[in-house]
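Q: How would the structure tokens look for this protein?
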Amino acid sequence: MTANCPAANLVIDAPIKTNKDRGTRVVYRGRYYGRPVIVKAYSHPFKRRIDWFLCHYHGRVLRRRGVPAPDIHYSGYAPSLKRYVIIYEHLAGDGDFYWIRTEPERSRRLVGYMKLVRLLAVMHGKGIAQKDTTPGNFLESDGTIYALDEDRMDVRPWPRGKRASLDNLASLITQFPPEARDDTDRIGEVYMKERGWDMDDRWRQYLARRIDKFRAWRSNKRGFYYTGYRGALVMAAIGLAFIGLWLLV
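A: Here is the predicted structure in token form.
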């Protein structure tokens, strides 16, 4: 990594991905010293440095523990953009795994499922979970599956336990097309084998319950589903309302 990021060395193209939080995290294609790159830029007025640091730190842990991830050319402040950025190598290849949602052939979908599940097992064994389990956060290039979006990862110093691992696996499975329901047992068995665990009826039922719960959340069958600081604000407001009612009574 270099000490700075001069404007002459980084050329930004149109954005290819913008997060839903008012565009404060934007992914661009670009060129850095003439090489094609992917640039992730942070522009939140209050927490852009924190967001950048978490991604930078998680990325270092990911690579140190041997999880495949794109190389980082530069990480730090970019004066030309007035933002904190992380510049990744541009991986040529088959692209992300969104294709499994539209692939009509079951055998090809199953191959895609298993590739993601095996990488997830490797990550869990090294103490890393991808909280945003969309297939777009995994990419295949030259036969290697890469983990993306370090911002949304949860990093621990020890391997993930069974419950936490199956919860994360269930979240991933709910991102697969509905037809994946018929392959759930097989997916679970492959995952457990990769972790060196036995898939007995207890854990098979646990995985099925967690999948149903995540599906219900995603379809809003149980009402609104808040995450992050918005969820904390909502819960605080509800708590204050109850305290106010209790004081009035």
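Confidence is low (pLDDT under 50) at residues 221-227.

The chain has two domains: 7-89, 95-218.

Upvote if useful.
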